[in-house]
Amino acid sequence: MTDILFPYTALQLTGQVNRIPNLYGLLNDLDLFPSSGSISTLIEVRRDEHTLSVLPAVERGGPASVAERKRGDVLYFEVPHFPHLDMIGPRDLQNMLTVDGRAARPRTLEDEMAKRLRAIRSKHAITREWIRMGALKGNIVDGQDATLYNLFDAFGFTKVTIYFNLSSSTTDVDGLCSQLFEQIATNLRGEVMSHVEAIVSPAFFDAFIGHPKVQKYWLNWSNAEKLAQVDRQKVGGQMGRTFTYQKIIFREYYGVAPVKVSGSLVSKSFVTTGKGHAYPAGTLDTFYTYDAPPEDIRFVNEAPGQEVFISPKILDHGQGVELMTQSNQLAMVRRPEVLVELDSGAAP
Question: Disulfide engineering: 163 pairs with which of 65, 141, 168, 347, CB 3.0-4.6 Å?
């Protein structure tokens, strides 16, 4: 008998899994939180008041205006560690068949590895979406519903909630939309944006488009979509409606994820029923996803982190191959004061 011949190294598996496209989630599809590899497990956020101002005109050859260097506060965040173990054993290959075209053949280790890499990618992808959605809410929680970071507390801001009271036909929806837009635009400070977007639950979306002051605009919008044969956006295997109203793009998101709450696995919505979360789109550096290096002594201070890292271990007595997978990721909103929560109900 010979030992297990496992043809993959940690670097090869890590390279393969990161070449599999991440197709999960609305925020991933929107590319709202672009990814950045970090060589450190600590993320530094420097709070400088880079207020944009109009430059003065001077005579040609005259002295130029000088940029002011104001010392800002520095906040540090440790990137969370998300490890997950998997294993390929004899039962995954013995008596198993792989369909190749019209023919069936015995399943190989390479077949099973390709299948596992897709599953591993998906597990860490849904985690990435969950962390990003938490950042958009200003409260990042993990898969056990434990708070990792409350960004409003960390940056010293109070969360703003706008109550739309959509059950009342007299609600000034236009005025509330203007208030929402102004709240975000005012707090951009030195940032820029192209427009305002809001990711909302299906219940909020239904109540919004069904409100008497909005309904006729929604009907015109949806009819125009049908005439133009515009397909609804496919996101994470689900279909979400969009509607532009008062310069704000409302996006429906009804994705759910399994999360452990008090030890039990339950399905939780990415957006709580009746809620929504508004933000500025088209910013320069407000939203990021940081990938830190893996928890592996062989790769300390070697290179910036990647989205997923895999390390194989051959088990004793031919029991199979253990796969230690991990992601070390943190979604960050560098200006949480631009985040606004929406509520379809009345103010308490």
Answer: 347
Length of the chain: 348
The answer as to whether 52 is a domain residue is no
Q: What is the DSSP string of 162-225?
A: EE--TT-TT--HHHHHHHHHHHHHHTTTT---SEEEEEE-HHHHHHHHTSTTTHHHHHHHHHHH
Domain that holds residue 336: 10-45+75-100+123-343
Structure tokens at 281: 């789109």
Q: How far apart are CA 315 and CA 311, in angstroms?
A: 13
Whether the Cβ atoms of residue 126 and residue 258 lie closer than 8 Å to each other: no
Residue 110 and residue 13 in contact, taking contact as beta carbons nearer than 8 Å: no
Q: What is the CATH number of the domain that holds 224?
A: 3.90.1690
Is 249 domain-assigned? yes
CA-derived radius of gyration, the chain: 24
Q: Is 92 part of a structural domain of the chain?
A: yes
In whole angstroms, give the CA distance from residue 268 to residue 324: 26
- Report the Cα 132 to chain-centroid distance in Å: 3
Beta bridge partners of 281: 195
Is 54 among the domain residues? no
* Separation of alpha carbons 221 and 299, rounded Å: 53
Q: How many structural domains is the chain composed of?
A: 1
Ranges of residues in the chain with a pLDDT under 50 are 1, 52, 227-237
Each residue's pLDDT tens digit, 105-142:
888 889 999 999 999 999 999 999 999 999 999 999 99
Burial 67-76 (b: 16+ CB within 10 A, else e): eeeeeeeebe
| Interatomic CA distance for residues 186 and 193, integer angstroms | 11
Distance separating alpha carbons of residues 242 and 223, to the nearest angstrom: 13
